[in-house]
């Protein structure tokens, strides 16, 4: 099975990796400042880890929406 990254020049793959790593670190720092726990702070596979992972993903989606200017209007 072919992966999308098979078709990318090595420098692009490296840039995407660095951007993803930076986003992960930034979001982790923001969550820590907010008093939230990050999935990396817990034992993988535990219920607490799963909850933190879901919360991290929700924060990531919210941050993505904000960056793309697609902030949802309140109901």
From TrEMBL:
It comes from the Bacteria. This is Uncharacterized protein.
